[in-house]
Amino acid sequence: MKKPFNLKSKLNFLFNTLPILGAAMVLSHPISASAATDPFSKVTGYSKKGSAGLFKDMNALLTTIMFFAGFWVIACLIFAGTKLSAAQTNPQARAQAFGGLAMACVGGWVVYKCLTIAGFVQGFGA
User: Fold this and answer.
1) Around Cβ 99, how many Cβ atoms within 10 Å?
2) Confidence of residue 43 (pLDDT cuts 50, 70, 90)
3) With contact defined as beta carbons under 8 Å apart, do 93 and 83 qualify?
4) Taking the CB of residue 120, how many other CB atoms lie within 10 A of it?
5) What is the DSSP letter of 49?
6) Is pTM beyond 0.70 here?
7) pLDDT tens across 48-102, in order?
8) Where are the membrane-spanning stretches (predicted)?
9) CB-based contacts of 21-30 (< 8 A; 24+ apart in sequence)
10) Which of 4, 87, 89, 99 has the most C-beta neighbours closer than 10 Å?
């Protein structure tokens, strides 16, 4: 008589066998001598002065982020100012506009302080 298909036992076998096979595959290969060399040595323009290049790239990234953050703050100020000018006699819309102006100013202050914090953190790498 044929035994019925038991999915639970097949999954147990699979999940118990795969980690053993994976460990055997990883541990059975010896580490080649090329693994001890620098993997980035074949990249054009690569030098072993990693921190100088890293700071150059991070400064470029910081400048780009600050550029977009500044435009975002200006856009928020313009949007809140437009909302304030459109409020006219509606006190609820006027309060929302003043709240938007305040939050845009707080956002600008946060962006400025992020620049200060980034400069402080950059000083640790020097």
Assistant:
1) 12
2) low
3) yes
4) 9
5) -
6) no
7) 666 666 667 777 788 888 888 889 999 999 999 999 999 888 999 999 999 999 9
8) 59-80, 101-121
9) none
10) 87
The 10 Å Cβ neighbour count of residue 108 is 17
Domain residue extents for the chain:
49-126
- Band of residue 114 on the pLDDT scale cut at 50, 70, 90: confident
What backbone torsions phi and psi does residue 104 show, to the nearest 5 degrees? -65, -40
At 52, list the tokens. 């100088």
User: pLDDT digits over 23-41, tens only?
Assistant: 666 666 555 555 556 666 6
CA dist 125 to 2, 7, 47, 57, 98, Å? 70, 56, 18, 14, 42
Q: What is the pLDDT of residue 126?
A: 45
Determine the Cα–Cα distance for residues 71 and 86; give it in Å rounded to an integer: 22
| Cβ(107)–Cβ(73) below 8 Å | yes
User: Exposed, middle or buried: residue 107 (CB in 10 Å: 0-12, 13-18, 19+)?
Assistant: middle
